[in-house]
Amino acid sequence: MVLKSRQRTHLGCEARPDAKRGRKKEEYNGEESRHCQLKKLKAEIISKCLTQAKIDDLIFNFIVEDCQSFYVLEQPGFRKLIAGLTEGLKSMDRVTLFTKVDHGFSKMREELMSKLSSVQYVCTTADIWTAHNRSFFGMTCHWIDMDSLERKSAALAFARLQGRITYDTIAGRIHDVHVAYNIESKVQTTVTDNGSPFISVFREFALDSQESDDDIGFYENVSTVLEGEPEQDMLLFLPTVQRCASHTLEQIVTDDFWQAVSQGPMCQLHYSAMAKVFAIWSKCHHLQVGMDAAEEIGKMALVVPTVIRWNVEYCAVQKIVSLSERELTELCARLEVPRFQPEEMAFLKEYVTVFHPLAFALELFQAEQKCYLGLVIPTVLSLKNKLNEQKDAAKYFGDAINAIVMAIDVRFQELFGSTEAKIATATTPQFRLWWMAASEREEMCALLASEASQMDPCTVTEANTSRNLSTIESEDDFFSYGSVKPAVQIQQRGVLEEIRKYVEGTGKSLECLQDFPRVKQLFLKYNTTLPSTAPVQRLFSQKGNLVTSQRNFLTDDYFERIQLLRYNSNLCSLVSE
To answer: Each residue of 497-516: pLDDT tens digit?
Structure first.
């Protein structure tokens, strides 16, 4: 009886887990059902937030902004990634991408032309780039916003140049781009490098008001003739040309400095020190082991300089000099480079000290947002002063400093005599007339008054009334010390009185120009010009990512459109909202 009872109890205990397992199975089915519902809800939310059109726009931005290959769209992994992230939506094909490129380019061009139509003064930069047996002509456009006084930039052209590149070809391209965007009458200056082709082009085709009509150049549209259309001669004139200031400084370092060093007593020391520096650069550039050693020992990435950028070369020497004696010895040993002698290290340290002002000036000229033509003269004058200050303490570079100062006077002679550059500097609040000799300031005030009196009164009024005096964005906007003069009172002020008050002021911010409407207009007119061609060189910065075997199927038109869309993505929206 007891055994049977135990057996029944045992059987009863065996029956209870079955019931629990049944409940667990029901709970599991319920959780699975809820999981499916959540998954469906997630899919519905994604489908509402991410439509196929939205995914296509995101992929389009990814391709254009990062200059990705069009073949990415056909990669199985990329398609799976898009399908997995979007719960079943597909990646667009190349045909759809080409269509979106056409639509985006047309939209970008319309927006850009609309912005340029309201701009009064424009500066353009032009350059030619050649790679893989193909040449491209690039042009960028720059202006200053009338209200915020901020620099605005846009790319206008990235066109393929076929055949022989002649003066007529370059002049025709520049003229065609200016006409295409309706800015030929607004361009103050076109900034180019100091190469002879561009300088000769502008010397050949620049319009001089003193010349007769017979001396004006004509541009013949060759494509029209080849297509069999009636031959038409188009009047061609180019704006004044502004030489690249940063290129001029680089020429001083690479040409004049090298000539002074090669003929002086420090020639052998310069050769030996720089040869070891270049040996380190070569090992770090070509061998990953060398780069790893430099990063491990120096705790920093060693920059390998390019050919056309001296300031990058200077930064690389600066990093080598910053290493301690132990670190530099270990680096030379691991890279199997001859060790630096004490005199060579002293030479390099003085090299870094002497040329620091020159490297700083190059950085200023290559900036874009806060760099104006009015910055050039004060920068060059300050550079000369700082170089002369170091001449007495220099042990190795005394003669080189003299040669560089003389080269600055020769190469910037045209700029120092330019009336436009002087007005641009005088209308920059940071400098005003402080950089001029006291005997020349009265003459400059008269010149500013003469230029200001020729300004359009309507333009001056609009510029002054556009200021929003109630905006408070910082402490300087909050604190005030009296009522602001109304616009009518400012307009009634005499031209000479306004110039006097501006010259006597001490504010360095561009905001103070809002109180001097005529000076502000002079600033907009003469400081729209950039001092260097750095922006158009940045237009070519993605050349290594674009010119590859996978992109050779792109036509020249689509190649240009992708580049312009990438450069102008911050100014114009790529896709419709």
So the answer is: 888 899 888 888 888 888 89
Reported as a pLDDT band with limits 50, 70 and 90, residue 296 is low
Helix, strand or coil, per DSSP, at residue 547:
coil
397-432 pLDDT tens trace: 888 899 999 999 999 998 888 899 999 999 999 898
Pairing of strands 134-144, 122-131: antiparallel
- Closest Cα partner for 147 from 429, 462, 368? 462
Residue 238 main-chain phi, psi, to 5 deg: -110, 155
User: Quick one: DSSP state of residue 252?
Assistant: I
Is the pTM higher than 0.85? Answer: no
Q: What is the pLDDT of residue 556?
A: 78
**Structure confidence at residue 220 (pLDDT):** 38
Structure-derived torsion over alpha carbons of residues 107, 131, 534, 197, reported in degrees to the nearest 10: -110
Tokens of 479: 């604190």
- Quick check: helix, strand or coil at residue 121? coil
Domain spans of the chain, in order of start: 99-244+533-567, 245-416, 432-467+482-526
CATH architecture of 99-244+533-567: 2-Layer Sandwich (3.30)
Residue 440 in tokens: 């020349």
End-to-end CA distance of the chain: 86
Q: Considering only CA atoms, which of 549, 537, 526 is closest in space to residue 240? A: 526
Phi, psi of 394 (to 5 degrees): -75, 135
CB 192, CB 129: distance < 8 Å: no
Q: So what's the pLDDT on residue 345?
A: 92
pLDDT band at residue 213 under the 50/70/90 scheme? very low
- Look at the block and give the residue holding tokens 């076109």: 190
Q: Are 67 and 546 in contact (CB under 8 A)?
A: yes
DSSP run (H or E) holding 110: helix 94-117
Enter the DSSP assignment of 165. Answer: -
Smallest CA-to-CA distance from 458 within 486, 487, 430, 424 is with 487
pLDDT band per the 50, 70, 90 thresholds, residue 523:
very high
Could you write out the DSSP letters of every residue in 134-165?
Answer: EEEEEEEEEEE-TTT--EEEEEEEEEEE-S--
β-pair partners for 143: 152
d(CA 12, CA 53): 63
Whole-number Å distance between alpha carbons of 574 and 387: 47
